[in-house]
């Protein structure tokens, strides 16, 4: 069976739903999403639960560490399984890309258009009318204790972590409505349906179709079996692992990968799957002495952002914050809190690849010696905070705390894991750069009719959780794609 549409969008996550919604202004749109659609209005679990049933995840594993690397699956993608922490990053994150058309000033209008900021809508850099609500929750007792420590340690107070250049302590910016997670599933799907987007859930794009180098559509496998969709423009928004996998399966990728898969090459691009980036984090688990102190908080309480001094690198940024473990792990004691030490300026790079046996992922966390040193410093600072809270009787620190044992760099390397911000595997850049996969207009090099718009195009990961940057890319796609 074959059908035609003006725009085919593959992947309905943070970027894909924005892309499909805006594409409806240019004709017919089919959105193929491999995972489920739980309908409108969004059910309560999609707003309030943090550990969802298995169909809502793609399960990957870091082949070096054996640690889990989940990805969201289903309408909303990562925004339906994530913690709704909503940061944009700093202006210099975008300016440092040096990609024409993608400076901070050029990305800001999309950041404004996609949000309605509940507290700071009047500020020039915020929006008041977009579908994603941005809010800061009130501080609970643990947040107050953390922020007192930050003040005594000399950090500045930040009312709005999304103000350009904000550094210091204050409440997390989150994408929530009535306390519930409000990502693209809740926020954009109703508008996309109303605009006429043909949303096909449980439908996987198995292969892109080409006539020479022109992408003409894709083979989809849905509840009614295989379907060929022909389209004037195809935009792949399948995420940091789903996008390179689909490109590789379709003949776009590094030559050795295509040869191993036995796929005829359409465009040989060594950059597909390379440049994998993520923010590494180390978790310092403690218990609050009074469970009322944490108010059943997922990631939405107090946040400290600061820069580490380093004569060899500018703006090396760290995050420190605490969250209650139980919403993510029902077996955890109600008192368990993970204090997070995160490096937001990683220089380590990993790789995603596809072989006949399936995907292989290596994040490369802390393989760069500078990253490992920075992480050890952030862990030391976080331990100071935890020790101060323990001295005040707010938390109890385990006697065998890993961060007190031996060499801090080795200790950090032993426990480091993912902040779930995988990106960069189809990096955007100049056509003359051999690492480039998509050009600044989001076209896939060596092809026509094919674009990528999602977290995979990020050339350098911003100093931010990656939902808002991914939404910004999806929002902008239809302004750039021919
Ligand atoms: C557990 C977890 C917690 C996180 N916490 C936060 C947080 O609190 N704050 C934050 O800012 N970021 C967070 N992130 C990261 C953030 O959610 C992602 O960076 C963001 O969703 C990426 O957007 P995307 O559009 O690139 O991909 P996604 O949102 O992952 O969307 C890709 C979509 O494509 C679909 N797809 C893949 N392959 C195919 C195919 N072949 N055919 C059809 N469909 C396909 C997938 O099922 C998925 O729905 C978290 C991520 C995870 C996994």
TrEMBL record:
A molecular function annotated in GO for this UniProt entry is:
oxidoreductase activity, acting on CH-OH group of donors
* Co-factor(s): FAD
All copies of domain Glucose-methanol-choline oxidoreductase N-terminal, residue ranges: 72-95, 239-253
Q: What is its EC number?
A: 1.1.-.-
InterPro entries, per database record: FAD/NAD-bd_sf, GMC_OxRdtase, GMC_OxRdtase_N, GMC_OxRtase_C
Query: Which PROSITE patterns does the record associate with it?
Result: GMC_OXRED_1, GMC_OXRED_2
- Is the keyword Flavoprotein in the record? yes
Q: Name one Pfam family in it.
A: GMC_oxred_C
Swiss-Prot/TrEMBL keywords? FAD, Flavoprotein, Oxidoreductase
Q: What's this protein's family per the entry?
A: Belongs to the GMC oxidoreductase family.
Q: Which PANTHER family match?
A: CHOLINE DEHYDROGENASE, MITOCHONDRIAL, GLUCOSE-METHANOL-CHOLINE GMC OXIDOREDUCTASE
Official protein name in the record: Putative GMC-type oxidoreductase
Q: Which organism is it from?
A: Nocardia aurantia
